[in-house]
Specification:
With about 110 residues, the protein is mainly alpha-helical. The chain has six helices and no strands. Helix 3 runs parallel beside helix 5 and helix 5 runs antiparallel to helix 6. The longest helix is centred in the last third of the chain and has 16 residues.
């Protein structure tokens, strides 16, 4: 996306994107750009899901841990986003979900 409203348009595209592997490279690139402008708990959780789906589990887990330190009051919502992605690819998302649950409890 290009133009004056591109960052806002990408924010809405990222927050509405399906949490799956369809067009994963584009979702990953866009969520990375949006996270630089609007690093909200929702954008960071979705970016972490896309990282996990792309095989970057460690980077995804580190991002979620940092997000939960920054937004501890959004713990349940962050975990809910990750849970929604789990049904589509449990092997990729379950470790991220465990890491989020452990990070948020201080384990």
């Amino acid at each position: 996306t290009h133009g004056l409203m591109a960052p806002l348009a990408e924010f809405w595209l990222v927050t509405g994107a399906a949490l799956d592997r369809d067009d994963l490279a584009a979702k990953l690139a866009m969520s990375e750009r949006v996270a630089r402008s609007w690093p909200t708990y929702e954008v960071l959780a979705r970016y972490a899901v896309f990282l996990a789906l792309s095989g970057e589990a460690k980077k995804a887990q580190e991002l979620v841990a940092k997000s939960l330190r920054t937004f501890p009051h959004r713990r349940d919502l962050t975990i809910a986003i990750i849970r929604r992605a789990q049904a589509g690819d449990p092997d990729a998302i379950s470790p991220l979900l465990r890491a989020a649950q452990e990070a948020s409890t201080g384990s």
